[in-house]
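Expect chain and fold; see below:
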Amino acid sequence: MILLENIKDKKLTGNALKNYRRKKKILSLLYQNDTLSATFLSKQIGVSLPTAISLLKDLGESKLVEVRGSGESKGGRRPTLFGLKRDSIFVISCELGRFNGKIGVYNSHNELVAPITVVETSIDDDDLVDKLYAEARHILEVNNIDYSRVFAVGTAMPGLVDSINGINYTIKKEAYRNVADRLSMKFGKMVYINNDARMEAYGEFIFGAAKDHNDAVIINWNWGLGIGLILGGKLYNGATGFAGELSHTKFEEDGDLCICGKRGCLETVVSASVLIQRAKDAISAGKISQLTNRFQYKIEELQPKDVIDAAKLGDELAITLLSELGQALGKALSNTIQLLNPDIIVIGGIVSRANQYILTPIQQAINQHCLEQISGNIEIVISENWEQSGLLGMTAKLFQKLFSDMYK
């Protein structure tokens, strides 16, 4: 049966292949629309009503689809409504940062079915896949979710990610770069990987602040800086899958060394890592600040949240540091705005918690460096759900791929 067997080994032909694709289409439509009638489904997939009912019966017997009551009558019998079962199709979504990863298990209604778990790992951790697998299995066991009902695993991660071939070229050890193969061998499920900023962008486009915006720039502002693009209503990956690497464009001549090996990249000026280093330098120099008072003798404990909290309490040093980051990012974004003409910029990540302390300088820099006719109508907002947007973007991608009508 669809999804539950290895279709590649079945070599479906004729009517069996047609019905396989029809069932995929039904699942896709129900995923997109929540509840639909058999009549509507029959028209959408181009079959008679009895055929649609037969397909729905098969999906029901496989515990993938359930009856959801009756719809409104349009003169005859009230139509029976169908929807995806909440407890039958699950995916595991992972998102990696620079120092740790998050794992969430979602059902086919994009609902989180267990608390998000944080795992200490990174893209260069040799045990990355083993750690993700062990924690995922633990989550399923604790929450009584049958592993056979998990159909896909996805991982969003920083770096130059080729989502088609499942390769992250930023991983230092070449033998470990094919993350998709490693995950597939361990989990035994359909696997998908992509860049973390692109998945955050997709999550914001489908579920968050960029919803209904066909041209959007989404910023993942953490220890590094990532940018995802929605262009013409679609996630933009670029010709080779590496679009959005604004963080590694030249910003300062002879600037600081970046983790990519080049000097003066934007990331060396605006990342949370830079914010912390500048704050530490100021504390070590004895600058007057709440931060100096609190962290002079425990400087290694300083975190971005501490700088942001100090700014919110009126600390001049903290406000200045955040303003400098915002001004630099706003200047860099001006080039993106003039090239792409987006209608919204969504900012997420740990630095986004600074809110107006970064929004105001970003807007000032854009006003200074952009043509008003291009930038005047752009909305710049802070994401309300950035901590889950990457996981949700990955979840949406996984279900779309599961319910694709492609015969794989």
Summary: The CA atoms of residues 155 and 193 lie 5 Å apart.
